[in-house]
Design a protein that fits this description.
- The protein is an alpha+beta fold and about 160 residues long.
- Helix content is about 40%, strand content about 20%.
- The chain is built from five helices and six strands; from the N terminus they run βββββααβααα.
- A three-stranded antiparallel beta sheet has the order 1-2-3, with no helix packed on it.
- A hairpin with a 5-residue loop joins strand 1 and strand 2.
- The longest helix has 16 residues.
- It is elongated.
- This is Transcriptional repressor NrdR.
- Belongs to the NrdR family.
- Its cofactor is Zn(2+).
- Negatively regulates transcription of bacterial ribonucleotide reductase nrd genes and operons by binding to NrdR-boxes.
- InterPro entries: ATP-cone_dom, NrdR-like_N, RNR_NrdR-like.
Length: about 160
């Protein structure tokens, strides 16, 4: 890291602290040449390999943007989307890989989106997983019902109905 004051290529770390979210480290540095002090923030790099082969840095905003379209008209807030994007990033980082392809990001989005809003999940999954028939939707809906039978009773299946 070059000193921002005199461009000396060397600096000495005076203090290091982990950020509140635990994803970066703030280092206070001092230049041995001019004595200037400055801060750096270090994060572990996480790169995305796009289908075209282009590599770019991971972006929570891109995750939010992709999911936002599926959430249009649903009771999902920007704060919900930010939490979802953070959850996705944390899941990806836990794999230990510094490069991940876009397909893996899509898979990482599915579970937290399903937990957030099932209709948005179906919309996202229908595009991401290329649903091309009613059977694809039915299979996804049936899986949602299996995963949460208490939330998905069909009309006439309510066991608590008086008769």
């Amino acid at each position: 890291m070059h000193c921002p004051f005199c461009r000396n290529p060397d600096s000495r770390v005076i203090d290091s602290r982990t950020s509140d979210d635990g994803l970066s480290i703030r280092r206070r540095r001092q230049c041995p040449q001019c004595g200037g002090r400055f801060s750096t923030i270090e994060t572990a790099s996480l790169n995305v390999i796009k289908r075209s082969g282009v590599i770019e840095p991971f972006s929570r905003e891109k995750v939010m943007s992709g999911v936002r379209k599926a959430c249009q008209g649903r009771p999902v807030t920007e704060s919900d989307l930010a939490v979802l994007a953070q959850t996705v990033e944390e899941a990806i980082r836990q794999t230990g890989s510094s490069q991940i392809d876009t397909n893996e990001i899509g898979l990482a989005i599915l579970r937290p989106l399903r937990d957030l809003d099932e209709v948005a999940f179906l919309r996202f999954a229908s595009v991401y997983q290329a649903f091309d028939s009613l059977e694809d939707f039915e299979a996804a809906i049936d899986q949602l019902r299996l995963d949460h039978p208490d939330r998905h009773s069909r009309p006439g299946e309510d066991e608590s109905a008086e008769g």
